Amino acid sequence: MSTAQYGQLADHDVPLTHQTSPLNNTRKSLDVSSDGGSSIVYKDNLDVEPFQDEKGDRFRDDPRIEEDDGDGDCQGYTVEPRRLRPRQKSRKILAVLIVIVSFAAIIGGLAATGYSAPSYYAKSGTKRITMDHIFNGTFGANTKQLDWVKEAPDGTFSHVSLEGNIVLNTVQNMTLDTVLVDSSLVLDLDGNKLHWQSWALSADMKYVLFKTDHVKQWRHSSFGNYWIYRRSDSVTFPIVAPTHPPTITHCTWSPVGHGLAFVDKNDLYVIPESEMASTQPKPVRVTDDGSEVVFNGVPDWVYEEEVFETDSALWWSPDASTIAYLRSDESDVKDFKLQYYNPSNDAFEPHQYPTELDMKYPKPGTPNPTVSVHTYTLSTRSRAQLAWEGEMPIDNRIITEVGWVADDALLVKEIDRAARLGNVILFEGGKNLGNIVRILGKDGEEGDDGWIDHGQNVIPVKGAVPGYLDIVPNEGFNHIAFFSPHNATQPTWITSGEWEVTQISAVNPENGTVYFMAATPSIDRHLYAATLPSTVEAEYEQQLTSITATDKSPPGYYETSFSPGANYYVLSYKGPEVPWQRLVSVTEEEDINVLLEGNGKLNQTLSEFVRPIISRTTIESDGFELNMLEMLPPNMDSTGRKKYPVLIRVYGGPGSQMVSNRFERDWHTYLVTAQRYIVIMVDGRGTGLKGRALRNPVRDDLGHWEVVDQIAAAKEMVKRGYVDRSRIGIWGWSYGGYMTCKTLEADSGIFTLGMAVAPVTDFLYYDSIYTERYMSTPSANGQGYISSAVNNVTSFSGDKVDFIWAHGSGDDNVHFANSASLLDKLTQSQVRGWRFRMFTDSAHSMDKRGAFREVYEWMTDFLEEKWGKGGNIHH
User: Where is this chain compositionally biased, Basic and acidic residues type (predicted)?
Assistant: First the structure.
C-alpha cells in the first residue's frame, strides 16, 4: 500500500480555458504534436514511435513493449494507490516568462496567490459520462517522453523506429535521424535477430547493452540476460552465457569508457574495458557470498520497496575507478508465504493445489536485514568495508542514501529504525574510515520530534566552488542546502521560506545554476532557477528565477525532464487544464520552443461531455489550515431545495498529497456527473508539502489526528444547506482504506457509509521500515500500536453504518492478514451488517482476472443501493 503514489495518483483537476501556456510564446516554435495519435509527426510527415523515458538511469525500454507492473498505473484513467509511503520522485517544470526578482519578493507574491475559483470549461457539453468512458481511456491525456542520451552531445535524444532501429535526434534538428543501431545486425548466438526489451549506451558510445528475457521480480526489480553490441564491427555477444530462467538482476555501464558491472545470483561482477575486445569477456568476481539471503549490489525486498525505490544498490565513482555497493544480509528476517490459487488468467481453469511464494518480510519489532557499505577499487581489485566512529549498531540502523560527491569523496547516510537519529558520513581520499559531518534528527538538521525523511537527493557540484546539494529542513520546510567544502557541517541555503522544494531537477555547472521544483503554493508545482555561490569568499545572496510561475500566473502543476547538460527541457503541463508538453531551450538565444503534445482531441472530447464544478480551497481544523478539493454536480441546486450526498475520498498517509492542481478524470467524475454526488478530498495532518508542523503531529499516533481532520471536513460540509446529512460517506484504498476504517471506528455519528479497499487494520502487519519511521518500534510505543489498530469494531454494525471492504488474497504489500484480522474481530464481537469481498490472487492493485474494474463496479452498485442518486427534492 504505500503512499508515494497517492500523491501521484491524486490528479484531481478540471481543465480551464484561461490558462496561459507557451503555445502563445513569441519565440519561434515548431508544432510536432499528435492530437490523439501515439506517434509524433514531424514537419516532413515522418512517422516515428513515441519517445520513451529512460528507466532509472540505465535502460531505455523498447517502445513496442508496454509492461503493466500490476499496479494499474499503465492505464491513464482510474488508478489505485500502489504504496503506503509518499513517492518523492518527480521531475518538474519550466516555461515562458523569465522574471528575475529578489527571493523575498517572489515568495511574497506567491504567498499572496490564492487557490483557484471553481474551474470548468467555458463550453459545457451534454453527453453523459458512463463507467465505460472512465475505464476505456476516453479522458486519458497523451504524453510524449524524450529519452535523453547523456552519452551524446547535450540535446540528443533517442527513439526506436518502426523497423526496430535505435535512432538519435537532436533538438537542433529533430527531423534528421541518425541510426545508432541497425536492429537487423543485432543477432543472437544462432544468427537470429535478438529480441530485446531495453538498451543502454556505453559512456564512450562504442558499445550498446541489450536486455532480453525480462522476468519481473518485485516492484522495481527483474531478471534478464544481457548482450553487448560492439558498434565498430556490429558484433553481438552475451556478457555471460544466457540462462533460462535468467539470473542477472542488475547491469550497468561505468560512467567513463565502457566498463561494466552486474549482479548475478546476488554476487557483484565487473567486466573491465580490456575484456570488451573479446566476444567471450571474462568477468571479475567481486563478491563470493551472494545467496538467497545475502545481496551484493542489489537491494533486498524491503530496501527496494521502502528505501532506494530502485533495483540497484551499487554506485560507480564519477571517474569509474571505484564502485561502492551495499551488502544486505536478511538471514534473520522472518519468512512470509503468499499463496496463489490460480496462476492462469482463466478463473474456470482448475488447479488442485495452490502455489506458494516465500519472501523475507520484516515487520515492526522483528529483525531487519543487516546492511553494510563496501567499496571495490578496479585498479587493485581490492575491496573494503567502510566504517566510522559513532556508527550505529548494525541491527538498529538503516542506510538511506549512498552517493559520490566527487571522484574520491563518498557520502553515506544512516538513521536508526525509529528515524529519530541520523548521521551523514564522508569518506575522502580512498580512506575506509569516514567522519560524521552532519547530524540528523531533533538535535540536528530536523530540530524537532518528527521523523527523518529520506530520499535520493544528493547532487555533486563541480566548478570553482565544489560541493554538493541536498534537500534539508530549513526552519520546518524542505529547502536546498549547498555544502562546500565536502566536509562542511553547515550549509549555504540556496532557498528558504514557508514553502517546500520537492526536487532538484538539474544543475548546470557551466553557468552555476540549479533548477528545482517547488510547491508554491502547495497544490501547484513550478520550476525555479537559482544561482550557486561563485567564489568561496563571496557573501551569498539568495536569488531566484521564476520560470513557470509569477505572482500573476494562474494555477499550474508542471513537470520537467532536463537534458543531461541542463540546456534543454521538456515542459509538461499537468493541470488543471488539459495537459500539454513543449520542448524548450533554457536560453532564448537558441530559440527552441516545440509543441510535442497539445491534446487537442482530448480538449474537443471534454467539451462534448457534462462537467463537474471543481474548486480548491482550505478549511481549518484545530488551528491547522488544510487543503480541500470539492467536486460539485453540474447545474447543482445550491438553494437547499435539493439535497446531495457527500463522499469523502481519502488517502492521508504521511507525506502524501491528494489535493493538487493536476488534471484528472476518473471514477469520481462519474459519481459527480452521473450519480450527482458531491466528492471532496482533504489533506489533513500528516500529509506533505506544507511543512513539518503539519506532518509531525501524527508521529507515534497514526490514525488519530488524520481522522479528526476528516471528521472536521464532514462537519464543515453538513453546514451547507444542500448537503444531505443522512448520506455522508468516506472511502479509500491502501492507507486510504485504513483511514476509512479508523474514521468509522471513531463513531462520530456523522458518517453513514464507508468503503475500504486493501486496508491496513493493524500496523504490526505492515513492513518495519515504513511503519517504524512514523510509529517507532512496538517496544518503545506499544500503546501507540494498540490505539492505531482497528479495534472498536462495534462501530461497524449495520445499524450504525453501511460498510463494505475488499482485499486481494495475493497482496504482497498490505497483506491479506489485515482483513483476516478485521473479519475475525467482527465475528468474535458478533458485529453484523457489513459486506466483504476477497479477490482471488489479486495483488494490492486488484490486478487479476478483471478484479480492478469489478471493485469499482461493486462500489458503484453499493452506492446506488444505499444512496440512490443525488439532487433529491427535500420535503
Answer: 52-63
